[in-house]
Records
---
Amino acid sequence: MANHKYDTILNKYMNYPSHLRNGKLRDTLSIRAGHPEYVGRSMLLSRMLHNIGKAPVILDENKTRLSANGIKKYLIYRGYWDTEVEYSIKKDSSAKKAQNIFTITHKDPTYISEYNHNIPYPDIRAIYEDNYDKSLVKKGNILNQVHLENEIKRINELMRAEGYYNFNSNNEEIFFTADTLKSRKQVPLTLEIRKDTIGGRYKRHTIGKIEIYIKDKPSDSTIIEKKIGDVTIRRMDSYFKSRPLWRAVTVDSGEVYNQKRIDLTRRNLLALDNFSIVNANPLTRRSKEAPNDSILDLRYTLIPLQRYNLKLATDLHYSQILNFGISPSLEFTSRNIFRGGENLNLSLSGIIGTTGNEKGKFFNAYETSAEISLKFPRFISPFSMDKIIPRRFSPSSSISFGASVQNNIGLGRINFNGGIN
C-alpha cells in the first residue's frame, strides 16, 4: 500500500537517528534523489507503512527449489528416508503474481527393528542399564534423529549426575549405528559409547575443597576466613554472616560430583538476591603431585549488589470506564538488613484518574496500595532447623503486610492483608 516512489528516500531517512528525522531532512533527501517536487510533503502514510508493512515477496525459483530441499531434509531427519518433494510454480502474468505448489510423497517411515547398546565400560554400562526404562529410543519406534539427539542429552545428564564430570564434553563419545544392508524400513540400531583413547578411561569425580569468596572486585584480597562444615568462606569484612552462605551450598566435600547439585547451589546463591556470581565453575585439581586427579575443587566468587535499590515507574491509561488515568509506582529494596541475607521490600503503587461522571472534577477516582515484605533465606523458627531440613530443599520464609484504598465510581473500600510463607 505504500507509495513505492518514496522507497529510496524513506530507506535513507530511516537510517538516520530518530532525533534527526524531521521535515527538513526529508526535503534534503528528496532533492538529492532528484525529486524536488516532493519537498514539503509529510509522507506520513508511506512512513507508517514503511515501518510496519512488509514488502511483497519477489518470486525466486532458486529459493523455491531450496525450500523443497529443506522440506525433504526435514522429513528424512524424522525417519521418512524415501520422501520425495516436487514443486511447481503457478504464474499469473496479468496480475503479476505467482504461487508455489509443493507436492510431498513421504512413503513409509523407517522403523527400529532392534535396539542394542555397546558400552565397553562396566560402570557406565551399569548406570545406563539401571535407567534403561527411561530411554527415549525404543524398539518399534520410527528412527527419528530428534529422538536420538534427545537421548544423548539424557545420557549426558545421567552420567554427570553420577559423578562423571564433563562426560561427552566434545559430543563425540556417544553415537548410533544403523545397519541398512538388509532393509531400509526395518533397521537394527546400536548405541555406542566410546571415549577417545587420548583422554583415557572415564573417572568418577568427587568434590574436594569448597570455597566462597566475597569481594567488591575479583582482584581484591580477603582478610577474614571462617569454615562451617566443609565450606570455607573468605570475606573482606564481617558485613555478611557466613551461615546463610553455608546453607546455600548443597554439596559436601568427599561426595560424588553431581552437576544438578552444583546448579542448585548456584541458584541458591543467586536467590539470596545479595550477590552476583563471577565464577561458579568447579575446576579439576591438576597439581604436580596429581596431574590427573579426579577431585573437583568448588569455588564461588561473589560480588555484593548495591545495598539499596529504588525503582520508579509511571503508566498512562485510557478506557471507556476510566477516561484518563495515571499510575505511578515505587519499589524500594534494602538488602541484608540483619547481615544474614534478609531483604526488605517496600512497594507503593496507585492510580488516579477521571471517570467523566462528575463534572468539574478532573481526578475523581483513585486507588492506592502499599506492601512491605521481609524475606529470609531460611525457615523462621525459634530454634535452628539446619539439622532437620536438608540444605538441598533450599528453605526460605517471608513475612508480608499490605493495604489498599479504593474510591472508584461510587465504590469505596479499604483492604488489609498479611501473610507468612
---
Amino acid sequence: MPEDHRCAFPNARSAALREADLVLVLGTRLNYVFGHGKPPRFAKNAKLIRIDIDPGEIAATPQAQLGICADVRVALGQLRAAAGGLAGNRYAAWMQRLAGIEAEKAPAAEAALATDQMPIHPLRLCREVRDFLPRDAILCVDGQEILNYGRQSIPTHTPGHRLNSGPFGIMGVGLPFGLGAKAAKPDKLVLVLHGDGSFGLNGMELDTAVRHNLPVLTVISLNGGWTADPKREKPGRDLGYTRFDKMAEALGCHGEFVERPEDIRPALDRAAAAVARGQPALVNVVTDFQARAQTVRFSASST
C-alpha cells in the first residue's frame, strides 16, 4: 500500500495499532518494533492473525490467535475477494478520526522539513530527497540519525522499493543494497541515503559500481561523527568532514559537495543527469551534528 493511500496513516499508526480489535500481521515479525504483539502497543483484547509463507515463522508467534500459511499476495487477494463490500461504512468514524490525527500533525512535520538552518538539518536533506525521487524509485537508507529521519519523512509508494538495515540496525548495508537493487532493476533510479559513519564501512564499493556499470546515486549526510557519542569523548567518534565527493570522483563517479540547503536540489538534479548517462554519482551534504532524531516528538509514537 502506498503511504499516500487514503487508508494509510503513518502519523497516526500508534493510535491505529492501539485501538484495533483485529490485526493482520502480513509477512513480518512481531518483534520489538511492534512491542512483540502485546500491550501497550496493541489493545489487550486485540486478535492477531499471522499470514506467512513459512510455517516456522507462524509457529514462532504464540501471541497470534490464528496462523495462515500462505503467500501474502495470494492470501490478500482472496481475502479482498471474499470481503467484497461487507464492511460498508462500519469503520468510517474511526477512519475519520485517524485522518484527523494525520492532518493535525502534518503542518508541524512539514515545517520541520522546511528549515533553512545552517548547518543543514537532516530533515531538510530528507525533504529534498523526498521531493526529488520518482514514485517508483528504489530507496536504500543506512546510518543512525539519517536512517531515523528518513523513516519519518520519506514515504514509499511501491512494494519492495525501500531497503534498510531492518530490526537489527546493521550498518554498512546501504551501498551494497543499492548495487544489488540496481543490478536487479536497472531501469529504476536507485538512491542510497547514507550517514557518513555507515558509508565508511563499505564506501569503496563505489569502485564496484563503476567497474560493473551500476549507476546508483549516493547521498551522504555528512555530520562529522558518530552521534551515539554526542560529546565526542570516546576515541574514534569524531570522523571529521571527509570530502567523499572527491573520493568518488577519483573512482570515476560524479561528485557534488553541498553546504547550503538551497543547493541540495540542484546538486541532486546534476547527479541524476550523470546517473542517466550511466555514471554513478555521489552528493556529499554537510549536516548538523547536533540534530537528533526523536520519533516521539516528530512523528507518530505519541498519538
---
Amino acid sequence: MEKVNKARVVEENNMTGSKNILVAPEQIIFEEGGCIKRRSHLEKCLFVFVILFVLVSIGLLAALIITWRSGDRQDVCLTEDCVKTAAMISDSLDYSVEPCDNFYDFACGNWRKKHIIPEDKTSYGIIDELFKTVDIALKNALEKKIMPGEPEAVTKTKTLYASCMNSTGIESRGVQPLLSFLDKFGRWPVVTSGWREADFNFVDAMSTITLYNSFKWDVLPVFSTVVKADTKQSTQYIIYINQPSFGMPGREYYLKGRNDTMVKAYEDLAVKVAVVLGATQDDAAKQMEEMVDFEVNLANISVSLEKRRNLTALYNKMTISHLQSIYPQFEWLRYFQAIFQTKGVDIIINDSLFIINEVPEYFSRLFQLLSSTPPRILSNYIGWRITKSFLTDLTNELDNLNTNYKKIIFGTSVSVPRWQKCAEYTKNGLKMAAGRMFVDETFDKAAKDNIMVMIDNLRSVFKEQLECNKWMDEETKQVAREKVDAIGENVGYPDEILDNNYLNNLYNNYEYGDNYFENILKTEYELSIEALKRLNIPVDRTSWSYGFGPATVNANYKGETNYIEFPAAFLQPRYYSKTYPNSVNYGGVGMVIGHEITHGFDDLGRQYDKNGNVRQWWTTQVISRFKEEAQCVIDQYSNFTVPEINLNINGINTQGENIADIGGIKQAYQAYRKWIKERGMEEARLPGLIFNHDQLLFISFAQTFCGNMRAEEAKQRILTEYHSPDRFRIIGACQNSEDFSRVFECPVNSYMNPKRKCSVW
C-alpha cells in the first residue's frame, strides 16, 4: 500500500512528479549512410554481441511499450467520468493535513473552507447538496402542466404543491383558517374572549389530535397514541401509548427551567403569536407564562433517552380495562372509541382490547401533574402546540416570528425558500405519488439491481465476520446467521407505483382544492386514518407504506420487520453512481448498507430476533460480553469533545449509531476486497490522484459526511440526537478500523490509529 504524504501532486499520471517520455516503436529511427569496416575476429565477435544486445533491447522496449499500451492505460482511467470523479474527490481534500493526524480534516478540509452555511440552514454538508438536487428534480416534475391522461395521483400531487406555492391566496386568508380549526379542540383560551371550561374536554381534544397526527404535526401534546407492530408478536399491530413530543426540539431543552435563554425565546414566540391571533398583550403574557411552566413540568416528568434503550422494559402489555384501573383519572375507553370508531377506521373497541404502555412511570407522574393543572392551562397548551405546527403555513407575519425564534434556537436567520418547503411537504405527504414523479424524472432504474448485488455481498461479509467473532458462542452465532439471512430489503421504489391504477387507488380519498390550509388538514387526516386502520390487519413486512417514500434521502433498518430500506433518492451521487469506481460506491452506499445491516445487531437491534420479535435469543453470557464490547464504544465517544460548543458526545444515546458506523465501514471495505478478488484485478486508478482504491474507499466514506454546522445545531445533536456529529462519525469509525490504519500506514498511537480499538462487529 502506498503511504500518502503531505501536498504530494501527480503530473502526467507520473507518481514522481516528473514527465517521463515513452518512445513508441514508430519513433525509433535508425541512421542511414554508415558502413562497416573490416574488423579483427575479436572485434567481429564483439560487434555481433552488440548487435544481439541491441536487438534484445529493442525487443524488451517493444514489449514494455505494448505492456504500457494494454496494461498501463487500464491502470489509469482517463474517461470523462473518471476525470470528473477524481476532480470531485480532490476538490474536497486538504492536502496540508496528514490523513493519520485527522482524517476528517484531511478528507473534508477544503470542502468545508469553500462552503458556508446558508442563512436558512442549521448545518450544511455534502448530503444537503443531494437534498437540494432531489428537491429540484421534484420541483421540475411538480411544476409541469397537468396533462390529460396522466395518473390522477400525479395531478393531485401537483395540485397540493400549487396550493402551497399560492402565497398570495394564503396571505389573503390570514389566520382565520387556523382559528376555525382550533374550534375542534374547544378553542384556544388565550385568543378567545369569554372562554369557559365547559368549552374544553380533555378526552375529546386528545382524540381529535390523534386523528390528525401524521408526519407534519408531530404535535402529540401530553401523551401520544400510535398503531405499530407488536414487538413481541410482530405479525400483528397493536396500540401504543407513550410520552409526548415537545414544542422545542426535545425534553432536554426544558431541564434548566423557565429562565433559560431558549425557554424564554420559546415563551416570547408564544406570546407574540397569541397577540397576532387576537389576544391582548397582558393576557398573552400571563397565560403563556403559565403554559410554559406546565410544559417545563411535563418535560421534567418524562423519561430520558438513556433510559429508553431496553425494549423489554418498554413493553407493558395490558387491557384497556387494566389501564383504566391504573389511571382512573382519564376515560380511556371513550378515548380509544372516539379514535378507532370514527368513520374510515371503523374498528369496534371494547375494554378487553390490549394496548402497550411504554412508560408507566411517566403516566403515573402525568396524572399527578394534571390533578393540579387548571383546564385553561391544559387547553392553552394544546392550542399552542397546534398553532405552532402551522406557523410556516399561514401569513408572512407568523412566518417571520417563527424565523426570529429559530435564529435563537437553531442559528438560522431566514426562512426556507417557499418552493423547497412546498416540495418537502408534498413529497412527505404524498410519498408514493411524489416518488413516482421523482423516479420518472431522474432515477436510473438499473441502480436497483446494482444495489441488490452490493447488499448480497455485504450480507455475506457480515456472516464471514461472525466466524471471527471471539465473544459470541457457536449457538448464538447460528441464530445470528439466520437473522442476517432473514433481513429483507426495499430498494429504490416499489414496482407497483409504476402501475397507474395502483397509484390512483392509494389516493382515492385525497381531494384537494385551492386552499393550502384545508389541503394540509386533508392530507394529515387521511394519513392518520390509514395508520389507524392497520390495527385490524396483519403486518406486511415487505410493504413500503410504513417506511420512507422513494423521494426520501435516507436509509433505515426496521427491527420490528427486520428490513432495510434504501429509497431511490438516496441512491444518487455522492453515495452511488454507475459511473463511479466501485471503491467510491462501496465507501458511499456500501458503508450505509453495512451500517443498516449492523443495526440489526446493535444494542437495540440485537433485542429483535429474525422475525422482528423482542425476546432474548442470545445467551446470558453472550449478552454480557456484548455489553463489555459496547461499553468500549460508549467510553470512546463520550470522550469526544465537539469543538463548536465544547461539549462531549453522549456515548450512551449514540452507541447504536456508533456501533453501526464502525461495523458498516469494516464490512464495506471487506466486501470491496471480496469483489476485487472475484474480479481478479484491481480497478483502474483515477487520474491525477495519488491514492489507490483501498484509500479511495475510506476517502469516499468520509466525504459523504463533509459539512459545517452552527453551534446551535451542535447543541441540538448532543442533547437530542442518536447520531454523533459528522466529524466524529468519521474519526470514531476510522480510529477503530484496522483496515484504515493499514491502508494509510498510520503509526501506532497516532491520532487516527490508537492502540486500543473498539469493534463490536
---
Amino acid sequence: MAKAAIAAGADGLMVEVHNNPEKALCDGPQSLRPEKYENLLKQISQIATVVGKKM
C-alpha cells in the first residue's frame, strides 16, 4: 500500500515499526521490523524519484 500511495502522488506515509512486533502493546500485526522498513524506504525512494517526489 505504501508503494502504491507514493506512486499515486501521496505526500506522506504512516508506517508502524517495532523491534519485536509480537510483543508490541498495540498494532503489532501491522508493524514492520526495522530491517523490512529500511528495505521499504529504499523502494519508496526509487518510486518517489520516478514520480517527481523528494524524500
